[in-house]
Each structure stands twice: as C-alpha cells, then as structure tokens.
Design goal:
Blueprint (H helix, E strand, L loop, with lengths): L4 E6 L7 H7 L2 E5 L2 H6 L2 H13 L5 E3 L12 H21 L3 E4 L5 H4 L3 H18 L6 E5 L7 H10 L4 E6 H7 L6 H8 L3 E6 L19 H11 L4 E4 L4 H11 L6
Parallel strand pairs: 1-2, 1-8, 2-3, 3-4, 4-5, 5-6, 6-7, 7-8
Helix pairs in contact: 4-6, 6-7, 9-10
Length: 259
Amino acid sequence: MGKRIFAHLPFLMAEDFKKYVVVNRIFPEVFLSGDVLDRVSSEQIRGFAEFLSNNQISCTIHAPFMDLNPGSSERLLREATRHRFKQICEVATILKPVVMVMHPGYDRWRYGSMQDYWLEKSTEVFKEVLAVTEETNCKIAVENIFEDEPSTLLRLITAINHPRLGHCFDVGHWNLFHKEGSSLEEWFEVLGYHIFEVHIHDNHGESDEHLPVGEGEIDFKLYFRLLAEYAPDAEWTLEAHSVADIERAIKNIQQYSFD
C-alpha cells in the first residue's frame, strides 16, 4: 500500500522477530515495561539499535504506563512516573525512535474536579520529557486511554505548545470509552491535526480485544477517510498481539482506498 507500517513488539521478544521484521518490512513499536527497563542492559539496547540501523529499519517506542500518572495528586506517584519516563528517554537516545507514545494518566472519574491540577503537574513532566529528548528529535505522542472526549488531551497539547508534542489516536480505545452519541468526526475535528501516530485495532465495544481491522464493529471506512484528511503523515501502528493478527490486519486494510 506504500505506507510504512509499525507493529507492537515487546522488547524481550525482539530477538525472536528480527528475521520477520527484515523480511516483511514491518517496523517495530518497541514496548518496554517498567520491569523490563530495570532488567535490560544498555548493551542489549545498543545491540538492537545496531540491528535497526544495519537494516535501515525505523522504530517507534511505547513507554511504560502501568499505574503511572504524570499528573497524579500523589507526589510519590509523580516521582515514580518521572523515573520511568527518564529511563525510557534514555532508551530513546539510543534507539532514536520516530515517535515515542506515552500515556497521559487522566481519568475523569478521579480527576474530574481536579482537571486544572492534573494539567499543571502533567505539563511539568511532559516539558521535562521534551527537554531530555531534544537530542533525538523524536516526536512525543500522548495516547487516549480512558478519555471519553478529547478536551483534556487538547488542553495538555496546547498548554505546552511544542512542535514535537502531539497525539497518538487509538481508535480501539476510542470505541470503548467515547461518550454515547459522540462521533469519530468530532474527535478528528478537535485533535486530528495534532495526530502524530495512530494505533489501529478493532473491538466490539465491550473489551480491549485488539482484533485485526474489520473483525469488530469500528467503521474503518470512515476512519481511514478522516485519517487521510486530517493526518495523512501520521505513523500507523498495528496493535496486534500475534503474527497471524498482524498479517490479517494488513490483508484487511487492503480493502480501503488510500488515494
């Protein structure tokens, strides 16, 4: 289709998939959890970076996210988040990703009345991330998770107002959490021009199934039309959890026009 395709790849599985990556030109979105960051050596990271460089393969990075929140009202949790973000930024200086995806940590059920506080603290942390990744020049994309509408992400992006900070739109998460009656068009109208990367997977609106495109209920004909209109240069990442799902997703995507 002429579009560069990335796919989710946990770092500890990377060695097993080197040949598949090279042969199929499926570029990795490298995920490192907090536990992996504590265990992995700089030599391992540099070895994978050398493999990417030798084969002219780009990567993106998915930062650790479990229980992290840059805008937490608990200082110790903010410091833990800073620590993990510092670790992944050090990895980014070696792997030199095109984009690094990070979770914003916002949940309106916990922070609905404290949105300004969350925004203030999150802004501090993401400014630090942007400063320490300046050398790599990678884009930082904040991903929608539990957001049922896009205003908090827009506030974060516009408050920082940095050319390397944008949005990672996860259409599967959107399908799970968007407000009843809201539409894909409305989300793209608000955040579409800020999109640096998209996570592409399907579900039936009940759980985060990570199905290949077209095997759930998401209107991908509309989705790809909006993507072409608002973010034609966005990186595409298939969030599939097996080689079979990656291959089905690529096959299913072929039915859509990308002219």
